[in-house]
Specification:
The protein has 8 helices and 6 strands; from the N terminus they run αααααααββαββββ. With 209 residues, it is mostly helical. Strands 1-2 form a two-stranded antiparallel sheet. The longest helix is centred in the middle third of the chain and has 40 residues, at 69-108.
């Protein structure tokens, strides 16, 4: 059974109440939950980061006029926590945008040649190859692999539904109940059953049609 990651509500709660615990939970979630990276919750996290930094800065200024060791330490910790959170948010936004770009090119535009992908994102071949391998390792492109000989990424082949000879109406009915839906998280196109809620094949975000 897959263990659920910590909810955003708990992370925000601990960031406000005891930010070191909140930061730990946040870093762990972003490292283990693909959908969290694509969730677009960086705005709220930025606000919390600035709040920690400003609160720590005000406490530090107050400490200058009437120095207290404990206040100085606490204000420094709040500033450090805020800066760490803001840096993590910045890194997450850049990584999310990069991965969304790769998924759009590979999945939506069906471009698998690494040279063409490198040209599209404006990066050297070696960097693109490494970053795509990182995405594969993180589970964004499950079943895919990089064929260095052909200089391309090979995606997992979806198994076609078994065809039973003579039963055409059932097949037609099944096909008519599937549709292509764009993931609200990573932006990749998914083929899903109409009226069903499922997880994005690439990032795990819940999608429906």
């Amino acid at each position: 059974m897959v263990k659920k990651s910590t909810s955003w509500g708990w992370i925000f709660f601990w960031l406000i109440i005891l930010w070191p615990v909140g930061l730990f939970l946040l870093f762990r979630k972003l490292a283990t939950d693909k959908s969290a990276l694509m969730s677009g919750k960086t705005g709220v996290l930025s606000v919390l980061g600035w709040a920690l930094t400003i609160f720590g800065g005000l406490a530090f200024l107050a400490c200058l006029s009437d120095f207290e060791g404990s206040v100085f330490i606490m204000s420094s910790l709040f500033i450090a926590g805020g800066v760490l959170l803001l840096r993590k948010v910045s890194h997450t936004k850049k990584l999310s945008a990069k991965y969304k770009k790769y998924l759009d090119i590979i999945v939506n535009q069906n471009v698998c040649g690494l040279d063409n992908i490198a040209s599209a994102v404006g990066l050297p071949y070696d960097i693109v190859s490494k970053e795509l391998q990182d995405m594969i390792n993180l589970g964004f492109l499950q079943g895919a692999y990089i064929h260095q000989g052909n200089r391309e990424i090979v995606l997992k082949q979806h198994e076609p539904a078994p065809v039973i000879q003579g039963v055409t109406s059932g097949i037609t009915s099944a096909l008519s109940k599937t549709t292509t839906s764009r993931c609200p998280g990573c932006g990749a196109n998914n083929i899903i059953a109409t009226g069903k809620i499922t997880e994005c094949e690439y990032c795990g975000t819940a999608i429906s049609a």
